[in-house]
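Lab notebook: predicted structure, single chain.

Context: the supervisor wants predicted structures on file for every construct in the current expression panel, including those that have not yet been purified. This is the next one on the list. No modifications to the sequence; it matches the entry in the shared construct table.
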Amino acid sequence: MERWAATTLRTLGVVLIAGLVLLTSLFLGLMSLCAYQGGISGAKHPEQGPWYLMGAVLVLVLGVFATARMGRAIIRASATAATSVSAPGAASRAVDQPAILNASQLSPAGRKAVENLVLALGAQILVSTGLWIFSQLHLWSTPSGFSSHNWLLFFLGPFILYHIPYAVLIYALLKKLHRLTLTYSLVVPAVLLLQSLFSLSVVAYYYAHHPAGILLLIVPWLMDILVLVLAYKAIQQIGIHPKPWSLIVAAVVMFFYFSAIHVLTSFLYRFARP
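Prediction complete. Output recorded below exactly as produced.
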């Protein structure tokens, strides 16, 4: 595996581990608080609080150790790359890849890779739309106090917000290839896959009583994985490689973006109920 691919995988690993550690530690901290203060039912279990708290601390320690270890590997790889480029005779071998390319500058293989990525992004939106309509018609029922029209609009907003990044990527890929566009092509599906892992238990419990709804869990995963793979192949064909620091920044941005949608949806549901 070439140096860039290894560095990219390590960087994505750092992002995923950091997100996993953050969400897990926050969840355990919340469980500890509920054990001391009482949960939704009001029952308190102070004897369980220290165990949840110790679990949160343990997850943080292990997460910091793992991310630091992978971070050192990324720094060493970057230093090795810089040394090899500055070595005598390396300048003639190194190719300085441009940060922006027009479609006319792409090779046939590169153009085909970008087209496949655009098709996968469009298919993800279309498939998700079909699954959303299916769930509205067959799986979700309108709660008491909501009209069916208001309930539909309530779910439509978050759905659109979730797919805006993919729509923006399609537009950017068709207009002009930029390093930042390819960076987000890797990051967006990776962050969505990470966040879906934390809703797995709740979603799986619900769909255990609605077996047909398992499609709503598996198919989006497969589409995000497909986008991730095709984005990687497009980057390999084009030669515009994202920088490790830009992957981390983009992952943080998308993590907060999708998390904000979750929080906003919860608040809207809470205040919209009569």
